[in-house]
Amino acid sequence: MTEQSLFCRRVLGESGWLNNVIIQTDAAGMIRAIRPGRPDEADVTLEGPVIPGMPNCHSHAFQRQMAGLAGFGGPDGADSFWSWRDAMYSLANRLQPEQLQAIATWLYVEMLEAGYTACAEFHYLHHQPDGAPYADIDELGGRLMVAASQVGLSLSLLPVLYCRSGFGANGASEHQRRFINSPAQFLNLFARSVARAEDHPLHRVGLALHSLRASSTAQIAEVLDGEAGRAAAIHIHVAEQVAEVEQCLAAHGARPVEWLLANHPVDERWCLVHATHMQPAEYDQAAASGATAGICPTTEADLGDGFFEAGYWMEKGGSLAVGSDSNLRISPCEELRLLEFGLRLRTGRRNVLTGQASRVGFNLYQQAAAGGGAALGQPIGEIRPGYRADLVELNAEHPMLCGVGEADLLDRYVFGGGAGMINSVLVAAKQTVHNGKHQARDAAAAGFRAVMEELAG
To answer: What class is the 54-376 domain?
Structure first.
């Protein structure tokens, strides 16, 4: 890569909209300066409104293959997260490395076209179907890095510690064999991921703890005391389900978030994924810790998880990010809309999450972009010096954007548009999407189709 100058007719900077400016980037795609300028002074001209790319705080890439395939009803009509999980296991245990890479390649193209410029990949599919490690213990993590590199998406790979099937269990079920590592094995896998990321300048490696039920107190402590515990991003599924809360109370005498905050050094590096079932004191303490809440509204709705009290969380100054999780839908705008609409349905009010910005879409987008950067442990989510030039250019000629003033642009995009309004996407100042389409779209789609045919056979 080389230094670049990008002329933006209109760009959302740290203090609001700026007109006719040049973003100067270094060879790594980091923003060095933003100054007034003209198109003839720049290497690239972006005529449409430019906003920060959205970080995706939570993804399980392999689950894209099962989108829409878990809608069958059970015999007693009591379908839940747990019945969905059984369907997920049966698909996960059939995947081969090259198939995972093809699925991820297509998914990451979809993410870029939707305006996600970086992704936290919560990666627990580690081993062969029988549980035996691959010759390269990080074979599947490596496949995800290659997929992201091929399409230009920045990846925060989060290898997952997964040691047991539930609270008090000594091991895992047959369906979970691909996920399981001892803490020592996991630290070896983590070290391999870190070494591999050195060959991919856009990628980072963080740590994920699957959940409190999937590892014991001692196992979590052993990993946090090792090199992995110093990662810039630490993620955990927590308080996603009522049954999980009840099991944690029985095992530890405390609710999941309550117990986590009391027993581990939760700080701004942490992302509490879902955190759906918290009491007010837990919201207060978690927000004060500096941790980011990683909310995935479309998946949480699909699984019947419940509502995160985003209004209360944001009143307490909590950091918030959004993710696509099971990848049923790939759209940051849909995640933000559902977050707001869920609260409207519960409260009977409109425009709940306005914050100090007074505009819901504007507030939500900026909060989620900045919170996503924190959750990924990367300098992204804002357009200012010292941050990477991960940019989304909206289509200035889109009919729905014509005649819209600056105050309403993001609200129009979030509530009235989405991917159809995107003209181009840049990651580290390098264009990955042009005229709304990724250049690798056709090849990636063909690879994905081939895998779907193989799995259907």
So the answer is: alpha beta
Q: Name the residues annotated as catalytic.
A: 274, 325
What is the C-alpha separation between 347 and 58, in angstroms, rounded?
A: 27
The Cα–Cα gap between 306 and 298 comes to: 11
- Is the distance from CB of 451 to CB of 104 less than 8 angstroms? no
Quick: pLDDT tens for 111-166.
999 999 999 999 999 999 999 999 999 999 999 999 999 999 999 999 999 999 99
| The model's pTM | 0.97
Structure tokens at 259: 């117990």
Please provide the CATH number assigned to the domain covering 4-52+383-441. 2.30.40.10
Chain mean pLDDT for the chain = 95
Phi, psi dihedrals of residue 47, rounded to the nearest 5°: -80, -30
Per the listing, tokens 């609200």 go with 411
Specify the length of the chain in residues.
457
- Residues 10-49 pLDDT 10s: 999 999 999 999 999 999 999 999 999 999 999 999 999 9
- Percentage of the chain exceeding pLDDT 70: 97
Tell me the pLDDT tens digit for each residue of 242-283: 999 999 999 999 999 999 999 999 999 999 999 999 999 999
The structural domains of the chain, with segments of one domain joined by +, span: 4-52+383-441, 54-376
List Cβ<8 Å contacts ≥24 apart for 183-187: 183/219, 183/222, 183/223, 183/226, 184/222, 185/133, 185/137, 186/159, 186/161, 186/223, 186/228, 187/223, 187/226, 187/227, 187/228
